[in-house]
Design goal:
Blueprint lengths: L2 E6 L11 E3 L2 E6 L2 E6 L3 E5 L7 E9 L4 E12 L2 E12 L2 H5 L2 E6 L5 E6 L11 E8 L2 E6 L2 E7 L13 E6 L4 E11 L1
Antiparallel strand pairs: 1-15, 2-5, 3-4, 4-15, 5-14, 6-11, 6-15, 7-8, 7-14, 8-9, 9-10, 11-12, 12-13
Length: about 190
């Protein structure tokens, strides 16, 4: 049975008092949403440990036409090395990424690309909110936009290390990125 374990509207300063901002970025609130602008790589961390099987939902609206956004999850510091999944979405940093939109899933570092999929987000010019979802259940990771599955990765637990469980999650951005976020929800599944 699913149970919501964290819900945050992200619509005012009090909503982020228990979250930790890592990196140089600014956060403001307008129109019932959190606006994050990154001068360098920035991550807003939810620091309570997540369950092994989890669903993370949030709403996202890009403001900058260039940039990149990330969801860090199952993140742990193990022997001074980060062990995590990194979902890179809204990738608009290079000319190739601007012309052909893709998203990426990495496990335990950017050298370990485990999945590459299409990204149907039109971009900042459309002024559109997108409903994003990530589900991690057992050995499988799913990511979708507006109920359209984009990524499905099955982890064998051998090739790139053991199955990742628990850990923390964070909303991240690369330098030059500005985006709105709202309605973050974490569900134990």
């Amino acid at each position: 049975m699913s149970r919501v374990i964290y819900e945050n509207a992200l619509d005012n300063e009090l909503d982020i008092k228990d979250l930790i901002l890592e990196g140089e970025g600014t956060i403001s609130f307008t129109e019932g949403a959190m606006r994050m602008t990154s001068a360098e790589e920035t991550v807003l961390w939810y620091t309570k440990s997540l369950p092994a099987d989890v669903r993370i939902d949030w709403e996202f609206k890009p403001v900058s036409t260039t940039g990149a956004c990330h969801l860090h999850f199952a993140a742990k510091n193990v022997d001074e090395k980060i062990s995590e999944f990194l979902l890179a979405y809204y990738n608009r940093m290079t000319a190739d990424e601007m012309s052909f939109h893709t998203c990426f899933l990495y496990k335990n570092g950017l050298d370990n690309l485990v999945y590459k999929g299409a990204d149907p987000m039109a971009g900042a010019a459309e002024d559109t909110w997108y409903r994003l979802s990530m589900v991690k259940r057992g050995k499988d990771v799913f990511y979708g936009i507006n109920n359209l599955e984009i990524v499905h990765y099955h982890d064998d637990g051998i090739t790139l290390g053991e199955i990742l469980t628990g850990g923390n999650m964070g909303l991240g951005q690369l330098p030059g990125t500005t985006a709105f976020y709202r309605n973050l929800k974490v569900t134990w599944i």
